[in-house]
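Q: I have 285 residues here and want to know how they pack in 3D. Can you give me a structure?
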Amino acid sequence: MKYLQSVIVIYVLFVFQQSDAQWNKGKGNGYYKISAWSLVADQHYTNIGEIDPNATRGNFTLSLYGEYGVTKKIDVITYIPFLTRIYQNTQVSEVTGNVLQEGEAVNAIGDIDVGLRYGLLKKNHFALSTTLKLGLPTGKDKGGSDGSFQTGDGEFNQLLTLDAGISYQLFSKPAYAKTYIGFNNRTQGFSDEFHYGLESGMKLWNKLWVLARLNSVNSFKNGTLSAQNSQGSIFANNIEYVSVGAEAAYYITSKLGVSFNYTGAISGRIIYAKPSYSGGLFLDI
């Protein structure tokens, strides 16, 4: 198969990161984060869920994420991957030491996301909201010598989610739990998707939050693009996975903080079988 010539990125694990997805920011309040994200992989899940080796490829992305409360119930959200580097290491024979394939890299902007969150209900410690996220095809859907060095999928998608969350005390510490379900409508022959996820977090000390996430993407397989196409359709068509991740967020001051995230797929189809890492600097005002 040639599909590993495409960089298969678990964007939902990284892009459009959420701070408090079920709780609206409130008018005039905001959350802003600049992040660096990295995924390097030499193996992948096949289209039947088995793990196979592949030439080492990587994705490094610098991004800006933001939320801003326009009104008490409406937030605007954006994710801008302003620099994405897709690269493949030089392939060298272990027997002769000869170069089998030269390394290659492409640098470009990625696909930008914009969205709106609307608060449906907030009562005591429970919140219910809905979010519409639009994926704009601003990245390169073909790049490099074989067209497979992509920073975007070339299609316009709309992800609509229903989000619910609750805050509570755990061992006398502030804690929360939230969940969502969603439908992602995709264009340009890509399959539509069903999304769901869970998240729980706890404030260990005055300045440190720790949290865990589970996310899943499931393809309806109703698109027209083939998963065997080496020119980009596999970049995001018929990807399926269940991922788990952990994050720590430390507030340096009451508004400024740093975070570190680790996420990996525990099962999947047509996706890299290695974890991703990210670190960021955020402003919560």
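Q: Anything worth noting?
A: The domain at 3-284 is CATH 2.40.160.40 (Porin). Residues 96 and 253 are 56 Å apart (CA to CA).
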